[in-house]
Design brief:
By secondary structure, this protein is α+β, with helices and mostly antiparallel strands. The protein is 54% helix and 7% strand. It has a four-stranded antiparallel β-sheet. Strands 1-2 form a two-stranded antiparallel ribbon. Strands 3-4 form a two-stranded antiparallel ribbon.
Length: 740
């Protein structure tokens, strides 16, 4: 209704009803996923991030990864398609050569660079990212205005999302540690879900409003299944990890100060909220990611609406207290799409005017009118019963989770038994909920709404389904059920069926059926569709807990210095990042939905401590040291702008490990952080040091030649300007195209 009032578009209204209607589940889901893809592409190419991470002078150059066989099995010049043509081979040989190259790269977009003989993989992938920005913006602003449900979205085809999944998935494949975050995987899964939804529910030119509503009600189970899996797994892993802070409900006493990139409100919450209310906050987190997750797939819209609204408020709270890129926005999109689907009243009472006209010459109403009068009462009664049962389940689960404690609340089960009790509950609840979602909710949604529509004469008798259409719809139901079966398959990680042998035979048979069916489908699934479903588990263990129980956030601090006669005489300057905590006086800021991936990875590197130099997954860390000493302009560009004046004079570098915590609340102008030096991680080093000779050979020389201008130069902006600019362009474009 809010969107309808703003845009005043007929797409938001029913053809035979003047009431403003909510956009369809498909329109919200597709538009939200496209927006997240746009933000992800822009974030990668903005602030010079792609060149600094994957460019020729970056931390993990794509060409170097390929030459060392770390990208794929090394692609040589003999793999080019043109080389086969030069040897006079037949078309069949060229065809086989092309597909061999595709399989060699796991169908990555890099095979195009190899086959087209691009000399720079980095430039090719940067062009692909800019192409992704352009097409995503076009599909978001222009191509969603066609018919295909309330709110448009009908002109978006499956291959639109397939292209985005292919390009961004290719970047994730070759992105090394910088693109290994769970929201990158979630975005790809949602993109595949949009493509599957576009295939199963193709837009048709001649479709009644009732038919559109029925299909949208069935489509909504796709985002609901993903949201249900995401939230339930995220909550359960916190208990199953046996982290003491989560089990004692003290996690929030550390979270705000130890999260990767705090916001401006993080310090205020950490210092201003008492431990009692922080425990209540952990309990609410368990509720949102536990019992409330089951209500997302509840049988009634009232329960689903309450659950989705709770998830939206939960994500807004996370956005205000932490920078997690577009992850929270994508979760809100899933919640809104789950909220919108099939929320219109299927059955309406007889209009009073029609009733009065019928009384003018009739002594009694017809049987059809009596049926139309009784069906709303029956529908309302069934909905209220199911809603009360869902509410009862939610209350029982919540009451069994918590008990009154000294500081407000605690887990009812002891720390030793809570994992066993949770596993016992999940071994029954997860298979039953999956069975309901796949075998009951999906097939009965269309049948139930179709029966009520026919009973109330909302569909004309001459428009009854033919046997062919009926068969096609049932086949679509089977395909949708198979897809949702695979989507929810990772939930077996939190419900391994260890206790199912002691359960009722029907429950045991149900769990075995789900496992067998899922394994059969996954066994025949092609390799390119391996991202169709993934498991999740954010913050399963709380970091930054000191031995004395206090906050002990670890941070790696780099210091640089110009040349001097003696190392003891150099003047050290702390290397400042744009967003990562370092300078104790630098206040944290809002940066989401942009993700500074180097700043994020520095947080993970600090957790590794001394092992960061030996771990192959952190080879980028050693490359960062080399690139700073080599004065790589691309790497220096993504640091704080105040560091640019030190680039040319930098000769020495050393690394220390510190423990950070928010400074106690005092008068304005005091330090934001307090820190303690834990010791030296790397002694003063320069390019001539024998310790880094191997790293220097691996990195290679820096090419200082002037590069060709970028296709699109996006200036450095702060988070507020970034968000306002994107939203302003979206709003202006949408108003323009709707007015035209």
């Amino acid at each position: 209704r809010f969107f309808a009032r703003i845009h005043k578009s007929k797409n938001f209204r029913d053809d035979d009803d003047d009431d403003e209607q909510m956009p369809s589940s498909r329109a919200l889901f597709e538009s939200g996923v496209l927006l997240c893809f746009l933000l992800a592409f822009i974030s990668l190419v903005s602030e010079g991030q792609f060149a600094a991470l994957y460019g020729k002078n970056g931390l993990v150059p794509l060409k170097q990864l390929n030459d060392e066989g770390l990208l794929f099995s090394s692609i040589s010049s003999s793999d080019n398609v043109d080389s086969a043509a030069a040897q006079g081979r037949s078309f069949a040989a060229l065809y086989r050569k092309t597909f061999d190259l595709m399989r060699k790269t796991n169908y990555n977009v890099v095979w195009l660079a190899a086959s087209l003989r691009f000399h720079s993989y980095e430039k090719f992938m940067e062009c692909v990212l800019y192409l992704g920005v352009t097409l995503t913006f076009y599909w978001l602003m222009v191509d969603g205005r066609g018919r295909g449900g309330r709110g448009g979205g009908g002109r978006r085809k499956w291959y639109h999302f397939a292209f985005l999944v292919w390009t961004y998935g290719s970047m994730v494949d070759i992105g090394d540690a910088f693109l290994s975050f769970q929201w990158d995987v979630l975005l790809l899964e949602c993109g595949i879900a949009c493509a599957v939804g576009a295939v199963l529910f193709p837009p048709r030119k001649r479709t009644s409003s009732v038919e559109e509503e029925n299909e949208d009600a069935q489509y909504a189970w796709i985002p609901r299944a993903i949201l249900y899996k995401l939230m339930l797994m995220s909550g359960c892993v916190k208990i199953q990890s046996k982290c003491k802070t989560w089990l004692k409900l003290t996690a929030l006493e550390y979270h705000f100060a130890t999260q990767p990139l705090p916001t401006g409100l993080s310090r205020l919450i950490a210092n201003g909220v008492s431990p009692r209310y922080k425990k209540i906050g952990v309990a609410l987190t368990y509720v949102a990611e536990g019992p409330m997750a089951f209500l997302i797939v509840a049988p009634t819209k009232m329960a689903r609406r309450a659950a989705c609204l709770g998830q939206i408020l939960f994500q807004v709270g996370i956005i205000l207290s932490g920078n997690y890129a577009y992850f929270n926005l994508l979760t809100i999109v899933l919640s809104m799409a789950s909220f919108a689907g099939g929320e219109r009243k299927v059955v309406k009472t007889v209009d009073e005017k029609e009733e009065d006209k019928g009384n003018d010459g009739e002594a009694a109403r017809t049987l059809e009118k009596n049926k139309a009068k009784a069906l709303p009462v029956l529908q309302h009664s069934m909905a209220m019963i199911a809603t009360h049962l869902s509410l009862l389940f939610f209350i029982i689960c919540t009451v069994n989770m918590f008990a009154p404690g000294k500081d407000g609340v605690k887990l009812r089960a002891s720390s030793k038994n809570v994992n066993k009790r949770l596993t016992k509950f999940l071994d029954v609840a997860v298979p039953v909920s999956r069975t309901y979602l796949i075998l009951i909710a999906v097939p009965l949604t269309y049948a139930y709404r179709g029966f009520l529509a026919k009973a109330t004469k909302k569909e004309k008798e001459n428009n009854e389904e033919s046997f062919k259409i009926f068969t096609l719809r049932r086949c679509r139901d089977v395909l949708l059920m198979a897809y949702l079966l695979v989507v929810t398959a990772p939930m077996r990680e939190i419900a391994p069926n260890k206790q199912i042998a002691k359960a009722h035979p029907l429950l045991r048979a149900n769990a075995e059926f789900l496992d067998t069916a899922t394994s059969s489908i996954q066994r025949h699934m092609p390799t390119p569709l391996r991202r169709i479903s993934s498991g999740y588990g954010l913050f399963r263990s709380m970091t930054g807990v000191g031995e004395d129980g206090k906050v002990a956030r670890r941070e790696i601090i780099f210091e640089i210095a110009p040349d001097a006669d003696k190392v003891e005489d150099v003047e050290w300057t702390e290397l400042t990042f744009k967003y990562k905590p370092g300078n104790v006086k630098k206040r944290p800021s809002f940066v989401a939905p942009h993700q500074p991936r180097l700043d994020w990875q520095m947080w993970f590197a600090a957790l590794r401590g001394d092992g960061v130099f030996q771990d192959a997954r952190y080879r980028w860390f050693s490359m960062f040291i080399i690139r700073i000493l080599q004065k790589s302009p691309e790497v220096w560009k993504i640091l704080d702008p105040s560091m640019q004046k030190h680039m040319n004079a930098t000769t020495y570098l050393r690394i220390s490990m510190f423990e950070y915590d928010f400074a106690p609340k005092k008068e304005e102008g005091d330090d934001v952080y307090v820190r303690k030096n834990l010791g030296e991680l790397l002694p003063p080093t320069h390019l001539g040091s024998p310790e880094i000779e191997g790293l220097l050979n691996m990195a290679g020389p820096i090419d200082y030649e002037k590069e060709t201008p970028a296709l699109l130069e996006i200036p450095d902006v702060d988070a507020v300007t970034f968000v306002v600019s994107v939203m302003a362009v979206i709003f202006a474009s949408h108003v323009f195209y709707n007015s035209s």
